[in-house]
Amino acid sequence: MGDRVVIFDTTLRDGEQSPGATMNVAEKVRIAQQLEKLGVDVIEAGFPISSQGDFDAVKTIAKVITHAEVAALARANPQDIDRGWEAIKGATAPRIHTFISTSDIHLKHQLKKSKEEVIRIAAQSVARAKKHTPNVEFSAMDATRSDVTFLTAVIEAAIQAGATTINIPDTVGYAIPSEFGELIRTLRQTIKGIEKVTLSVHCHNDLGLAVANSLMAIQNGVRQVECTINGIGERAGNTSLEEVVMAIRTRKDLFPFSTRIVPKHIFTTSRLVSKITGMVVQPNKAVVGSNAFAHESGIHQDGVLKKKQTYEIMTPESVGISKSSLVLGKLSGRHAFKVRLRELGFRLSEKDVEQAFSRFKELADKKREIYDEDIVSIVAEEIHRMPDRFKLVYLNVITGNITVPTATVKMEVDGEVIQEAGFGDGPVDATFKTIKKITRTRSKLLQFAINAITGGTEAQGEVTVRLEEKGQTVIGQGADTDVIVASAKAYINALNKLEYRKKGLRGL
Ligand code: KIV
Ligand code: ZN
Predict the structure, then answer these.
(1) What is each CA distance from 58 to 63, 71, 75, 388, in whole angstroms?
(2) Does this model's pTM top 0.85?
C-alpha cells in the first residue's frame, strides 16, 4: 500500500447529475483542462452511452487531456462497455469504469436478478472491458447497504476477471464514518487478491458525511477517493475534492499521505465549475466559500492580527485566494489582462482572449475596479457558453413607484430579430414576460436569486434562475452591472439550456 492517494474527479459525470447542471461539450472540455491543471489523477469525463452529447464530450476530452487518465462510465453490459471504449480509446491513459448494484434492495426491485447472476455479470463485464484496456475499475453500487459476504464474492469475481481498481460506493450516503471504516477494514482482510488492486471509495453526502467517510476510508487503507469540485453531484452531492485534499494536507499528523493536487488552483477551479454549472457556492462552504477565511468577531480579528494561526488552520493564499484580489482597471491593457487570465488558469485562444478583452473593457467602463471574480465571470459568460438559439440584442425598462413597469426587448431568435414590449408586476417580471412572449416558451420559473459578485454598489450583479419545463430543470446565469440586464441574460441562458436539453444533449 503506497502513501499516495489517487484523486479521481467525477465533476463531469456525477457532478453533472446535479439537477440543472447540464454542460455542453465546450464547457466540459474547459473544466477537464482545469482539472488536469489542478493535478487530478483521473477525470471521469462522462457516461458515453447515455446520450450523443455525452459521447461527444467524452471523446473530445479524451483527445485533449495529455497527463490525467480519462475514465468513461459504463453499466455492466457489453453495449455500455463498448460504447464507453469507443469514446475514450483516443486518450493517453484510458480507463473503463463499469458498475453493477450489489444490495438486496437494488437486486430485487431494480435489477431483478439473482446473486449468482450478478456475480457472473460483474466478471463478464470486467473481462469484456479488459479486452479493450488493461485499466479497468469495477464499482459495487450501493455497497454500504449490501450483504458483506455477497459483496466480497462479487469483488473477488471482478478481481479475478482483471479489475485493477475496486470502488466501494456509499451510493445513498447512508454510512456513518465508524461503520464505513470497519467495512473497508473487513473487505481488506477478507477479499482474496485485494492487495493487487487500488481500493477506492465514492461517497454521497445525504447525511453530510461524504468527506468524513472518505477520510475514514483513507485511514483504513483506501488509496483512491472519488470526488467532485464544490461537492456537487446527485442529490446532496459527493465528497468535495477541495475539502478532502485540504484535510489531508492540513492534518499531516493523521494523514501521512500525498496527492498530486496543486492547491493554489483550487479556488479558480471552484469558481469556474460554479459559473459553468450555475451551482452557486454557499458562503460558508469549507475551503472555497466566500466566508471561509473571513473573520467577523472582534476576538477572532484581534487574534488573527496578532498571529494568523490563532484562528486560521490554512491560509487563503494556499488555495489560490489572493489577499488582494483587486487586479485590473479601466486603463489596464491587453497584455496585463492576458497575464491575469493565465494566472487564473485560463488557456484561451487568441480569438477568445480578444472576445473576453472587449467584454472586460466594456465592464471596466462601468465599474472602476475589476476583481478576479469578475474575470472568471467574463470568461464563463463570453467564452464557455453553448451555441445560443436565443440572443439578447436590446433591453429598455421603465420602472418606478408611480408607473407600471414596462420592458421593451429586442432579441435574435434563430437569427431573426424580434421586438416586443410588455408589462409586469416589477421590472424583472416585465422583462421575463416579454422574453417569454418573444421566444414562445412555456417554462416555469422555480427560483430567482441575485448575488453581488464583488463588493460596492457598482459591483456586477450575478443572477441565477432555475426554470422547469416538462420535468426538465435547468439553471441559467447572467452577470452585469445592471441587475435587470443580468436577470434577462440569466433567463435567456436558461432558455437556451432548455433548448439544448430538448435536442437530447444531456448527461445521465
Ligand atoms: O453513486 C454511485 O454508486 C455511483 C457509481 C456509478 C459509482 O455514482
Ligand atoms: Zn455517485
Answers:
(1) 9, 9, 16, 22
(2) no
